[in-house]
Amino acid sequence: MSFGFLSRRPLLATGAFFLIVALVVGPRAPLEAQGLGGLQNADGPLTIDADEGIEWQRDRQVYIARGNAVATRGNITVAADELVAHYREDTAGETDIYQIDAIGSVVITSPTERITGDKGVYYADRGMMRMTGESLRYETAEDVVTARDSLEYWEDFDGGPIAVARGDAVAERKTKEERIAAEVLTASLAPDADGKLAVVRLDGEGDVEVSTPIDYARGNEGVYYVKEERAELNGDVKITRGENQLNGERAEVNMKTGVSRLLPGEGGRVRGLIIPQKSAAEPNSQ
After folding, report:
1. Cα–Cα distance, 258 to 281 (Å, whole number)
2. Which of the four pLDDT bands, split at 50, 70 and 90, describes residue 275?
């Protein structure tokens, strides 16, 4: 829609204020399966409200909402201290919002997902969201992913949504004591049997660690298949259980069965260090 009937001066509204603007509407998918991608693909307008009002800077082509600002489209909500919507106009005078900056105490939620951080940027053209700052956290009904440097969410990456955690990335299951850590973790998502998005695969790069209450394994890179509860590790692999340790180039760790297999690399061998437990009845040597 066109805002050409408004003056070129900044527009400042006080108190609670609602602004309705149209975004580019892409192909529809069931809302439960959309997750955070619904910010771009959901039906209807984008609604923004803020305690301290919204300022329109026409020359800069931005809207700035301040004070407990909340943007909603469909069932997707973006909340922050401040929201900045960047727009452009086509030759017909239609408005297209192509970027939204969320600044301060950012919380982005859908029926199936939640992301938190200090600052977020949503690039509508790329279908990508990047979160930075403290307390970076991405959460689904089953899994929690945290990071130090950034969290990225891609609505459609090679056929489906992914979340990328960078810097001391950690993924944990809520219902089981299983933990995957790496410098970079990429979570591939897909709808589960109930139509809700869930993590189906985790790819780790750099100092990948897989741990359960019993086993600990590490390698240079790895893949974790969530449904099978199975991890594959490659490069300088070590598997530890208690004081026992196995070393090799490749490993398969099955968290469901408790079976770990260490495999040699090309032309290599595997090595194990097994420390027997002393019997309680065994006399001490003199």
Report:
1. 29
2. low
β-bridge mates for residue 202, sequence order: 187, 224
3-state secondary structure at position 53: coil
Cβ neighbour number for residue 85 with a 10 Å cutoff: 25
Q: How far apart, in Å, are the Cα atoms of 150 and each of 72, 116, 134, 175?
A: 23, 11, 9, 25
Q: What whole-number distance in Å separates Cα of residue 2 and Cα of residue 7?
A: 12
Other C-beta atoms lying within 10 Å of the C-beta of residue 91? 5
Question: Which pLDDT score, from 0 to 100, does residue 248 have?
Answer: 81
Concatenating the DSSP letter of every residue in 264-275 gives: --TT---EEE--
User: Which stretches of 127-243 are DSSP H helices?
Assistant: none
Closest by CA position to 165, among listed 178, 182, 150, 143: 150
8 Å CB contact between 82 and 109: no
Report the DSSP beta bridge partners of residue 272: 246
Render pLDDT for 142-191 as a digit per residue (tens, 0 to 9): 889 999 999 998 988 887 889 899 999 999 988 888 899 999 999 998 88
CA-to-CA distance for 156 and 187, rounded, in angstroms? 13
CB atoms within 10 A of CB 254: 15
Average pLDDT estimate for 22-40? 40
Whole-angstrom distance, CA of residue 162 vs CA of residue 195: 16
**Percent over 90 (pLDDT), the chain:** 34
